[in-house]
Amino acid sequence: MEKIDSRTLPMAALNERRRRAVKMRIEGVALKEVALRWDLSQ
Prior knowledge:
Layout lengths: L10 H16 L4 H8 L4
Helix pairs in contact: 1-2
């Protein structure tokens, strides 16, 4: 899987990733799994 440099993404795309990550956390998904799924830092 190719990593995407988030610094190059538009702000709207970053915010959408964050919203989806927060939704997963609220649903009880582990932090590590969320970070891996959305290529976010822990």
